[in-house]
Amino acid sequence: MVVVLSEIQMGCTALGNFKLLSFDKIPSTQDYAHDLVSAGRARDGTVVLAAAQSAGRGRFRRTWVSHHGNLYVSFIFACPERDARLSYAIAVAVAETIASFGIHPTIKWPNDILVDNKKIAGILIEYSGRFVIVGIGINVNSNPTVDRYKTTKMENYSQTPLNELLARLMRNVDTWRRADFRRVREHWLELAACINCPVRYHGESATLVGINENGALVLRRDTRYLLVYGDEIGV
């Protein structure tokens, strides 16, 4: 059921390059987007928004606690083939959106946005048919207690109306997704909290030292440098 949200007053609305579908509560914006693709109803620029989720998820289907008061959204874009550069553009877009409220975020590879070394937002990118689905969750008015890492919320730093947050996020996603990757790469490296982080590649340790112009990760193992893509390594 599409409803009008209390703060983000939109039901099914066309906004610039996007068509927004907003819900009070659904199991998962990401799963709903996948269902649109499966049913042949997905269109480039469709955005699925929920005020809350009963089965929100992150990478490896980990639970994403999704109470009312935060931002949960999935963007659907036409994408005939995988593009390793997209994740960097989206991370920069989310970080820039948070920064626009006077907050100072950093990006932790592969999908986290941090403030004061605490997770404030996460990104989930999944491919489905001819589309890519970009899920974004931002802690605005609450943050979950998680055993694996520390979390924080935007309310600790700035007043953040959800409707304005969404509007800025949509503009930034549109802008950075279309930007020249040299600009994306430069800004990602400026914001990166994960340079010189340890990773696992083919079961052995290595150090993440950067990304190249094609979106490949640059790893160092002893005195050797390796170019790999994100789905080939673990943290």
Number of helices: 4
Outline: globular
**What is the number of strand segments?**
13
CATH class of the largest domain: Alpha Beta
Q: Going by CATH, what is the homologous superfamily of the largest domain?
A: Bira Bifunctional Protein, Domain 2
Give the tags.
235 residues; alpha+beta; BirA Bifunctional Protein, domain 2; 2 domains; 8-stranded mixed sheet; 5-stranded antiparallel sheet; 4 helices; globular
Notes on the structure:
The chain is an alpha+beta fold. The chain has 2 domains: 180 residues, BirA Bifunctional Protein, domain 2; 38 residues. The protein has an 8-stranded mixed sheet with strand order 1-2-3-4-8-7-6-5, sandwiched between helices. The chain has a 5-stranded antiparallel sheet with strand order 12-11-10-9-13, with no helix packed on it. Strand 6 and strand 7 form a beta hairpin. Helix 2 runs antiparallel to helix 3 and helix 2 crosses helix 4. 38% of the residues are buried. The N terminus is likely disordered.
